[in-house]
Amino acid sequence: MDLVEITPQSHAVILSLAYATPQNITGKPIYRQAKCYLHKDAEPKLVRAIELAKGIDLTLKIFDAFRPNEAQWMLWNHAPNPEFFADPRKGSPHSRGVAVDLTLVDSAGAELEMGTPFDDMTPNAHHGALTVSPAAQRNRAILLGVMTAAGWDFYKNEWWHYQLFNSRSFPLFAEADLKLGLM
User: C-alpha distances in angstroms, 95 versus 44, 58, 67, 134, 138?
Assistant: First the structure.
């Protein structure tokens, strides 16, 4: 299997997996288990981002990473908006294990202000949105700097979403591809 589990113990990150709780856009849990996975080719880039963030006294907080294609269908059926969710017929970088949704947390454990919550499906969530506070713009720029310096590409419509540059070259994974399924 090409997926590596990401845990707070193994990677010094905070996990707040939104789709394992009802606190997501669907209002109900999509994942039965709060487990986080990335493709083995994406994991070293996450490790580099963790190191870069740590160098400026910040920690990564992950909202989502690998997402089985079945979960992508649930999100798409709830909100079929191609500006924010990949059409599952084409496949999402998340369903390939090469995308991560995250934010930054300071040394006191507080999330940095980003101007919108995770999965805010409005133009305010776009990188470069001037409608959010200067502090949020600065914090988004810090996250962008950390992630791009670590080798990640960004998605212009979501300040929280990063993926490998060649994300479409990876195969899609379904729920059945995990030994301990998420859903």
Answer: 18, 27, 5, 33, 30
CA distance 103 to 14: 10
Residues belonging to the chain: 183
What are the residue ranges of helices labelled H in 58-99? 69-78
Other C-beta atoms closer than 10 Å to the C-beta of 164 total: 22
Domains and CATH numbers, the chain: 3-177 (3.30.1380.10)
Residue of 70, 111, 113, 158 with catalytic role: 158
Question: For residue 115, what are its two tokens?
Answer: 């101007």
Q: Is 178 left (phi over 0), alpha (psi -120 to 50) or beta?
A: beta
Write the DSSP symbol of residue 56.
Answer: T
Q: Catalytic: 158?
A: yes
> How would you write the pLDDT of the chain (183 residues) with one tens digit per residue?
699 999 999 999 999 999 999 999 999 999 999 999 999 999 999 999 999 999 999 999 999 999 999 999 999 999 999 999 999 999 999 999 999 999 999 999 999 999 999 999 999 999 999 999 999 999 999 999 999 999 999 999 999 999 999 999 999 998 988 877 789
Helix (H, G, I), strand (E, B) or coil at 38: strand
Residue 8 belongs to what H/E stretch? helix 8-11
